[in-house]
Write a structure and sequence with these properties.
CATH topology of the largest domain in chain A: Rossmann fold
Oligomer: homodimer
Shape of chain A: globular
Helix content of chain A: 25-40%
Number of strands of chain A: 22
Number of helices of chain A: 17
Strand order of the largest sheet of chain A: 2-1-8-7-9-10-11-12-13
Largest sheet of chain A: 9 strands, mixed
Radius of gyration of chain A: 24 Å
CATH architecture of the largest domain in chain A: 3-Layer(aba) Sandwich
CATH class of the largest domain in chain A: Alpha Beta
Structural class of chain A: alpha/beta
């Protein structure tokens, strides 16, 4: 009988995403890697530029250091996704929509040695640094000037990014080993059937889970990264046409913005694959997007899972179903991608799997390679989600349908428990969205002496309605479409809903309002 | 500074190809998994059947046992690629073209606990067992009767395969952990751009490196495995038409057989992807195949690398080149696939990289995940190829072109060294093949007192030639197309060339003939 083997040097090379980029200058040499404004780089150039940045970095940082990037989806951000892991350092991309106070907290926690700052966000970062406690160490700042003149204030700034590209030292090779993102990069490419030489429009911020690992994915397949600093629908349609974009990603809100502002309402010349995540795509949006030539896929994951690890695997026999039924199936988060080893939905109290009946709510849990190694310097948060039973607890609530497909029902905090029954706020919201008078809706728990909690709806009405519905009419509308206990007991009309810095509805604020009613 | 992390249970699940199959009954449930003659299985059925076989197996075998399969590309062979790793056992598929003596040697060496034997090969295996040394342990035999009646001789046979499928025990879960083949399965799918729901025609024997990992690959993408027991061109064309085949693999000789016997010489209704490996596809065959609607890709690998790990990454700008130039580029083995971490060509004497000039010959070496763990019970062979410098030595000879693309020139034993110059026999052969009078050619070294060795060509002429070339004319033909020293000094005309049991030209035999001239 054969005994388990020790691995030998030849078969135990660490799996690193840097390997994808090292292969690109041969496999894709003169093929375009990045287009941005009037500049086009080739894969040979992107490889060389990244290597030169890594070389400059390696005289300042070493394995285990944190390097922060505060920048939009520009070439430098892409190159730093290669250069930082090439030095064995930890890449920390910060959401550029955050406020100075939050950025300050993040910088103090992660203690980066260097912060790369795009000129658009230099005042944000400089303000964040002024908020540091007096004993905190101020990081070195590297400005990314892009095509703008150098920033007026150079407080704390060292060499510019382009100077780091220009300086050619000898790079001390010191790779980040990242099995999880290696596996998830391959898995996300396969799951979305990304072919060789895709043209990827960067509407998804790279700071969101490294662009769901498609940063490295584009190096893997020799894709063209269409970078952009800011965007609106008109910019997106122009870039799609100009560069023959084949793939793009984003939250459903991005798809909605694109679809609602189609310049001609004409079908795209060539189909564009749109991978949506963050929330299910509502049925009307899905149908509208498909009629314009977008092919919508639906994935689900977290930053902690290196991007999406569940996806709504589409069965050919579903193509013949009615449009509304197809939309209902497509809205589910689906099955694990091939990089994820196990998924389950468990009763958070008892830790056992819920029934696969599409009704029993439980917490979504994962096992497998794409899970993060852990949170930086936060063992408490880490052990609360990576538990001793071997599962990663997502904090999200879902059901498993009889066919084994997962459907996310809520963030665990968004469950409303009324009379002992769990109510998913998103389920109530989706009914509200189906009301033709309502443009935006959010549902939160309102404390209730009798029921414990009741659903409280906040709605915005569409402009120019011939007649506006009353609170009673909206409640009645919900009662015709939901179990009685799930219909809102209260409806609050708002001009607009409060949002967080990442554009999500600020439910904490709405809960406070509901409590005070 | 962040210190290296221990991996936690949630992120360190072993990577096993069994996970692909466990996902399939959900992601691909009622989609066809296997079609064979009049039978169609779904992925739910294939999962259940494999699990039942694993269950039956787990009462007999355990982790580390060897299980041998001697069978053609039938459903049982596919299912055993799942069931055997599900038990933590080692799958050993034997080339069905071998003779009884060789099979006997293989069985004695690997000491399988069980041998699954298809009825077509039961006499082969039974004869092999009669050749065992008297002290060798005879394995248990499990007949696969397929749709044939039970074999007349049941010597040493235990339960049939279908009975093992029917028996439902409780399966002790004991997975084979196989990071290398996990990585190579994903890598091979991505490299060939295999989409969801491909229809894969099994012309490539599954016993060749597990069908280049596409056995597991089909479970990953929800493909349909079109199985077949034996085939010829007419069977292949019928199956392509009947099942809308999208993908198939094989050595160039298979492609040649298919292309030369196109029933109508008409273009295929839909293009079929053909992945060739084992040898480059000669230019005329490539052009002919493409004109019929085959899209030819070219990969290179070894059984030791779990399938192909190099492939001729195609650049869009090459599409505009002349056909002959495209064929020349396509014939190269190309760049590493994304699963392979490093590739090099080294001077075997000095161990340093050869020049990337397309001329300097050296041994092809690899590093990375897809490399085998080792040879079963053969530490000498293992250490001769998996060396302490961390490289796996392939024994194959190649050059690296200035663009970084590998071209395999020869098996190391096939290099002819004449006057201190290395001559690649395949290079001379490809010139011989370009002679319109020659149907088959092989070149070996002939000992020579002055030059050390000279190239000696063995050629078969085509039927019905208006005039047959002389030895001098063929040598002169080569001299016009090759450096003088590379042209054969001797040409031997043969009716047909001797072949090994796997259909390759038997060069050992030709060397003996050349020596005796």
């Amino acid at each position: 009988m054969e005994q388990p083997r020790q691995r030998a040097a030849a078969n135990s090379n660490p799996l690193t995403t840097v390997a994808f980029l090292e292969r690109a200058p041969t496999a894709y040499a003169d093929c375009p890697s990045i287009v941005y404004k009037q500049t086009t780089y080739t894969w040979s150039q992107t490889h060389r530029r990244s290597l030169q940045v890594a070389s400059s970095l390696s005289s300042i940082i070493t394995r285990g250091h944190v390097v922060t990037v505060v920048a939009p989806n520009i070439p430098a951000t892409y190159e730093l996704h290669i250069a930082v892991p090439m030095c064995g350092a930890i890449l920390n991309t910060i959401n550029t929509r955050l406020d100075a106070r939050t950025v300050s907290v993040l910088l103090c926690h992660s203690e980066p040695k260097l912060v790369f700052v795009d000129h658009q966000f230099s005042s944000l970062v400089l303000e964040a640094i002024t908020l540091f406690p007096s004993n905190a160490k101020v990081p070195l700042l590297v400005p990314i000037t892009d095509d703008e003149p150098s920033p007026s204030s150079t407080l704390g700034f060292i060499d510019t990014y382009e100077n780091m590209v220009a300086a050619a030292h000898h790079h001390r090779k010191e790779l980040s080993i990242a099995t999880g993102i290696f596996i998830n990069t391959l898995s996300s490419l396969l799951d979305w059937s990304v072919p060789h030489h895709p043209v990827f429009l960067w509407t998804l911020p790279m700071f969101h889970a490294n662009g769901w690992s498609y940063t490295w994915g584009m190096a893997t397949m020799g894709g063209t990264n269409v970078c952009l600093r800011n965007f609106n629908a008109s910019i997106i349609y122009n870039l799609i046409k100009r560069h023959n974009v084949t793939h793009m990603c984003g939250a459903p809100v991005v798809l909605k913005m694109v679809v609602s502002n189609s310049p001609t309402n004409e079908h795209l010349e060539k189909p564009v694959q749109f991978l949506a995540s963050g929330a299910p795509v509502p049925a009307p949006l899905l149908l509208q997007a498909e009629s314009l030539g977008f092919r919508v896929s639906h994935g689900y994951g977290l930053t902690e899972t290196a991007g999406f690890v569940m996806s709504c695997a589409w069965k050919p026999q579903w193509n013949t179903l009615a449009a509304s039924e197809r939309a209902r199936l497509r809205a589910r988060q689906g099955v694990r991608t091939i990089g994820l080893m196990q998924m389950d939905v468990v009763d958070p109290e008892r830790g056992v799997s819920v029934k696969k009946d599409g009704l029993s709510l439980g917490e979504i849990v994962f096992k497998g390679g794409p899970m993060m190694l852990g949170y930086l310097k936060d063992p408490t948060a880490e052990s609360s989600c990576m538990r001793e039973d071997g599962w990663f607890y997502t904090g999200d609530i879902g059901v498993i349908h009889p066919d084994g497909y997962l459907e996310v029902k809520d963030r665990s905090k968004d469950v409303i428990i009324s009379g002992g029954e769990n109510i998913s706020s998103t389920e109530v919201e989706s009914v509200l969205y189906s009301n033709p008078a309502i443009s935006e809706a959010a549902v939160v728990a309102r404390p209730d002496e009798f029921w414990g909690e009741t659903p409280c709806a906040f709605v915005c009405l569409k402009d120019e309605l011939s007649e506006t519905p009353t609170e009673e009419e909206i409640i009645e509308f919900c009662r015709t479409k939901l179990p009685h206990y799930m219909a809102p007991k209260t409806v609050v009309f708002k001009e607009e809903l409060p949002k967080t810095s990442t554009g999500k509805v600020n439910k904490f604020m709405l809960r406070d309002i509901a409590k005070a009613i």
